[in-house]
Amino acid sequence: MKAILLLLLAALPLGAWGDQGHRAVSTLSLTALPPGPRAWFAGQEAFMASHASDPDHWKSDPKERPRHYMNLEAFGGPGHLPRTQEAAREQAGGGFTRNGVVPWIIQDRWRDLVTAFQTGDPAKVAEAAAIVGHYIGDAHVPLHTSLDHDGKTTDQRGVHSRWESGLLGRLQGLEALPIPTAQPDPELLQRPWAWLEQAHALVPQLLADDLAADRTTPRSTRGKARGPAYWAQFKDTQGPVVKQQLTLAAQHLADAILNAWIAAGRPTR
Predict the structure, then answer these.
(1) Prediction pTM value
(2) I need a labelling partner for 6 at 20 to 30 A (CA). Which of 71, 94, 169, 195 fits?
(3) From residue 214, how far is each of 163, 230, 235, 239 by CA, in Å?
(4) Helix 228-263 crosses helix 203-214 at what angle (to 10 degrees)?
(5) Domains in the chain, please, with CATH?
(6) 168, 242 in Cβ contact below 8 A?
(7) 200-204, 218-222, 238-242: least confident range
(8) For 117-167, what is each residue's pLDDT tens digit?
(9) Which residue from 32, 107, 21, 102 is spatially nearest to 64, judged by alpha carbons?
């Protein structure tokens, strides 16, 4: 298994969280599965990783983009988030979907995973797990939980890409991240809101750390070309946070897979 992890993660391009990060979440989640559900992914590891970024290629559909985030401020912030789409409509009006629907899409795609287990087709299981894993991964990215996705209001444009692409691509040892063993959880479908609130709490420090690292780079008439000093400081302060969020996303995907397998009747392969 370690050899498979090394092979899959070493082949990842320096893309956004939607590529390198999502593939890592998919691959790492399998290390946390008990034998029953893990057997369904034997020989499917690379196939699952290859589908981890699929939803990012569907964004030409206007209904797809809001499935990747939730602007917590638009719903009153942590502690006030609607748990149903009906409540969201009452709270934010008919256009509430513009502010994100990721917790509900996680629920829908998890049900697809249950159905995939029931079909008895390992390829369908691996693909469905990759898809729900993509949205679970997005729910753990701090800037996917905020109205200001990219530092526009704080003059930090590009911080989104710097955190989930530039920084992630500079981290080492992703294949060694320890993922806690998946656990049965009857309340799994209610967990996405807590994941979003946890990620949202990281936004202020993320922005502060980016701003502090940015002071290492003087602004020129051509803008900023962030060099080694910026990346060294940002990696020192936010690198552990990126690894933490990857670990949590992989853990929660593993929990989702295990509980889908249980809901499907614990099928054997």
Answers:
(1) 0.91
(2) 195
(3) 13, 6, 12, 15
(4) 160
(5) 2-217+224-263 (1.10.575.10)
(6) yes
(7) 218-222
(8) 999 999 999 999 999 999 999 999 999 999 998 999 998 999 999 998 899
(9) 102
